[in-house]
Amino acid sequence: MPFDLTQPLSWESAAGDAAVMLDELQPNIVKAHTREFLTVLFLKFTDPAGGRALLKSLSQPPAGAPLLKAARTHLMEVKAFKANGTKGTPYVGVGITRHGYTALQVPDPTIPQDGSFLAGMKNAALNDPAPANWDPHFRDVIDAVILVGDQMSGPRNRVLAAVHQLIQAAHGVQILGEEKGHGLHNKNGDGIEHFGYVDGRSQPLFLTEEINDERLTADGTSNWDPAFGLNRVIVPDTAAPDPTRHFGSYFVFRKLEQNVKLFKKQEKALAKRLHLRGDDAERAGAMLVGRFEDGTPLTTQFADGNHHPVPNDFNYDSDPNGAPSVRSSAISARSTRAVPAASSRSRASACTSWRGAARLTACAPTSPMTAGSTTSRARMSACCSWPSMQTSRSSSNLRKGHGQTIRAFPGCPQAPAAPVSTW
Ligand code: HEM
Asked: How far does the centroid of ligand 1 lie from the alpha carbon of residue 220, in Å?
């Protein structure tokens, strides 16, 4: 029985094809998986059979439990954790690049056909540095990524060791490099990015259970409805046995450098220009980001303090210019992008325009890989659905100087490493 991809899905009552989809889909697509500690391995295949054997062994290992679990298993783990605190299992995810499909000898007509995916990140018009200047392991041709994450470092390390063993046992699989990240938090326990702002709060929701939770246990959905249809995040996996029931998502991996010092300097300069003094100076940063550091939306009040829970039910309708940096002088502080027109939908474009400004001044890509470009539709639905992870252990230094952020976005339809079903 086919299911409606244009609507969110109730996973608890999913039946027929929808149930098969959840049993075959990887976790961390329809709902983000906890991954305070994350390692991403970048692989090259030199033997198609060896590469295939490795992928198969992740869900059917020679001994022990499968490392790659299904989306439904993940959702059941989350439910059990909420009910009685039972800890879930670590997250393992896999993505294959366009070149990876060929290296695995997947027939051309079944390779996902998205243009940006086929072109690859090295050819994306994103104003990135030349690939020759990327970190060495991103310069090579990458065939696949394996992601291993958990709430704690111990379980992540154990599963990572098991993945390493499978890679060693597989013929013709080479590790080109790895990236490690761990989550950053503020004193309220909320996840933050390197400039110190709460991040990862505004997320598209694809499951009716999550949408109901947002309505009933958070600040509601009357001003901003985070509900999105499944087709914003999953696509039929054309290389899987039954693409009507086997789905995947495009996955984007970007490594960005945040110049924290410069951001703070620009924030101060903006506050000076706007004559914002004392505690009010914080408003300059909020005008750039749309929220105060603790997540308080700028449109809801003129100071921070509204963070329990961090609100998400807001829009920019009260703002005549429809953007976070409404005050006219702040608008001139923006760089390349026009201030979006007022509408309740302006939130996505507002962030995009902030990003446009911030990237020029303080936030720049260092080593993008794998993916193609994203469209604004993709940004709306998927980007930032992974909170940023810092790639160094020393967060205090990073807050003062540079921070490197890895952002991995499942679901950007215009991009990169297509995930496999568990074939
Ligand atoms: C270093 C780079 C970036 C930083 C520091 C950053 C930071 C933030 C922060 C602090 C928020 C507000 C928290 C929230 O609403 O959850 C946010 C929201 C958002 N970001 Fe980013 N971001 C970055 C890059 C990106 C990229 C690359 C994309 C898309 C490709 C993106 C898309 C979004 C979207 C769609 C929102 C939600 C806007 C809303 O609903 O109001 N961001 N980001």
From this structure: 20
